[in-house]
Structure prediction request, 312 residues.
Amino acid sequence: MWVATRCPDPAATSLGEALRLTLSYADCETGARVSRIADGSLREVATALRGGRRIDGDPATGTLDCLTDRVCLLAEYELVGYVGSETVDLPLWASATQCRHATPTNPFADVDVAPCPPGDVCTCCRTIGKLDLGSDTQPGSESRIDPGVYTFTEGSTEYELDVYRTVDDVLGEGDVSETVGVAFRLRNRADPGGMAPRLCTVRVKGGPGVETYDRNDGTRADTAGLPGSDADGVVYAPDGHAVNYVLVCVCTTESDADCSGCSDPSLMQGSNGTPEESKGPSNPDGPETPGGSRGGPPDRGGPAAASPRGDQ
Prediction:
């Protein structure tokens, strides 16, 4: 027996990315999960199953068995942080063939198995704001921040950062503790409970350099989804330096010609997080270190990403 699906329909929907699906074998008597078949966003599960997946007739054994009695599957879904009215379809097909005294043949073998396209197209990566740890808006000393909710010191007033974890270290002379890493999620300040745009790039300035973390297709509005962040979602300044500021850039659907780019808003004209001069990424404050999504700092690692816009 095989199961298969196809890409979410319609493909251009953020619901296909926000909805998490887990397909598992289940105990037919209790309904409890036995073992997992596939999990991830709706798009990721569709990509994993669209070429057909053979179902084990007896998940309790260590081998792939023919179906002798019955087998039960459990589909669980979770939708967190989504506000909208989209609809999306994901069919699940099943096909059974003769198993014993025959060579099992996948009935979905001729189906296109190319990865399903991401639902959120990131055509433009532009600056939304900058949080300066050296400003008077943060508690404590310069280059230190505590968990809490903060508005941008420069840029958009419609969104804010929910800093849910920090990493501090004692740097320099004396016993002054400074922040070397932060984890945060972007929140909709103008419409509490509403969706926030997806992160495309986060730049963390510290010392003479800047650490850059670029998105992949699984990145949402949280640093925990950025390649190169640690297991707690923390992004760090380069080389163990204290964080000077965090620059946040988000995905929009603006055309390439209209895209203002991911640059420091203090160096450009404009307001409300809509800089007007730079048309692409820039780094006026110092060299970028080979970390974050460009390979990860030596002690943290991180897979390489394609580009902030998702181009291959």
Remarks:
- The longest helix spans residues 42-49.
- The chain has two helices and 15 strands.
- The mean pLDDT is 78.
